[in-house]
Design brief:
Largest sheet: 5 strands, mixed
Family: Belongs to the ROK (NagC/XylR) family.
Mean pLDDT: 93
Protein name: ROK family protein
CATH class of the largest domain: Alpha Beta
CATH architecture of the largest domain: 2-Layer Sandwich
Distance between the termini: 22 Å
Helix content: 40-55%
Structural class: alpha/beta
Length: about 375
């Protein structure tokens, strides 16, 4: 309960920005005495700083606002995708301060992890004046967060790879791993648009297609950390309308669209660059939006969430966001106004960085002293 209260204080300061203790206490639903105690502990832990005394607008008693110590604390992130690994540093306020992309020379797990670890160590040296609160790893597919393994990643072909222990040993950093869609759901809760949503769904569309859902702020994992895989669901309605056999959703993943266009599997940016309205490339992305919009409609009818967040690089193309919304409007029994429920990710252009770093930051903002103690072990 003590560390939970500390997490409530830290999240309140994240949401409010610099604020006096009285405002933070109300926002975190804590007594003034508890707030004073927890604020002192977080200042001593180096997560909060006390700003110079002020009177705000010049009326009332002076006070010293509290602020996140963003200049002193960063989380490192490793996102392992189909064609490359992204290594990032994100401060505890959610600002990306560094990002590097490493193309895979091989999909062999030891080679990918060794290259990632080398870059993490270089980045650690560059950030020697900051405290690194941990290393988060995010990737698609079935990720067992307890065992620290990638159980199965269909595109990479990985099975039972002990990613967490391998990177922890190579870097010396406390390391945690999660499925990138669940990690993105945590990032949206902390830093993005579903912060206040009682229930939410996050759909990730890339070389893998995953979904995450949260109720009362808790992202669902399942007993085997396997929740969220939807790539094997069948596209039945759209296929039936065209007189075609049903297709699994994985046939709409990025690598499948690239293959249909005669491009290498990792060359989605090139396909997006070709996707002007009226082109075959644009039609493929629009078709995918219609199909996955139907999946979103089914998820909405099943879970009735406050918000749905879609992470799809094609959303920036003309008409693609509208295709998602039109499909939800046409197929959902409960969502007549999808524009009030379905949104793009808050982190367009930095989704990989935010999802991987938040694997660590999520724990820090919910049990900060425990997270820092684990880092020191």
């Amino acid at each position: 309960m003590t560390d939970s209260s500390a997490g409530s204080v830290l999240r309140a300061v994240l949401e409010l920005g610099p604020a006096p203790r009285s405002v933070i206490a109300r926002h975190a639903a804590l007594s003034p005495a508890t707030l004073t105690w927890q604020a002192r502990s977080l200042i001593e832990a180096g997560l909060l700083v006390e700003l110079p005394e002020t009177t705000g607008a010049g009326i009332g008693r002076p006070f010293s606002p509290l602020e996140l110590n963003t200049g002193g604390n960063v989380a490192l992130g490793v996102h392992i995708a189909a064609g490359r690994t992204t290594i990032a540093a994100v401060d505890i306020g959610g600002r990306v301060v560094h990002s590097t992309k490493l193309p895979h020379r091989s999909l062999d797990p030891p080679a990918v992890l060794a290259a990632a670890a080398d870059q993490v160590l270089r980045l650690t040296d560059e950030l020697s004046d900051m405290r690194i609160v941990g290393l988060g790893v995010a990737t698609g597919g079935w990720v067992d967060t307890v065992a620290g393994t990638v159980v199965h990643h269909s595109f990479l072909g990985w099975r039972d790879v002990p990613v967490r222990d391998e990177l922890a040993e190579r870097t010396g950093l406390r390391t945690e791993i999660d499925n990138h869609t669940r990690a993105l759901a945590h990032a949206e809760q902390l830093f993005g648009r579903i912060r206040d949503a009682a229930s939410s769904i996050v759909l990730f569309v890339g070389n893998v297609i995953d979904a995450a859902f949260a109720v009362h702020g808790q992202v669902h994992y399942g007993p085997r950390s396997a929740a969220g895989s939807i790539a094997r669901l069948l596209d039945t309605e759209a296929a039936r309308a065209q007189g075609l056999p049903a297709r699994p959703l994985e046939e709409f993943a990025d690598h499948a669209l690239c293959a249909a266009a005669g491009l290498p599997a990792a060359d989605v940016p090139a396909l997006l660059a070709q996707a002007r309205q009226g082109t075959a490339a644009h039609d493929r992305f629009a078709e995918r939006a219609r199909v996955l919009g139907g999946v979103v409609a089914a998820l909405i009818d099943l879970l009735d969430p406050d918000a749905v967040v879609i992470s799809d690089r094609a959303l920036r193309l003309p008409g693609v966001h509208a295709a998602y919304l039109d499909a939800v409007r046409a197929r959902s029994a409960v969502c007549a106004a999808p524009e009030e429920v379905v949104f793009p990710s808050s982190f367009q252009g930095r989704i990989l960085e935010m999802s991987s770093a938040t694997v660590v930051l999520h724990g820090l903002f919910h049990a900060p002293h425990t997270a820092l103690a684990a880092r020191a072990v």
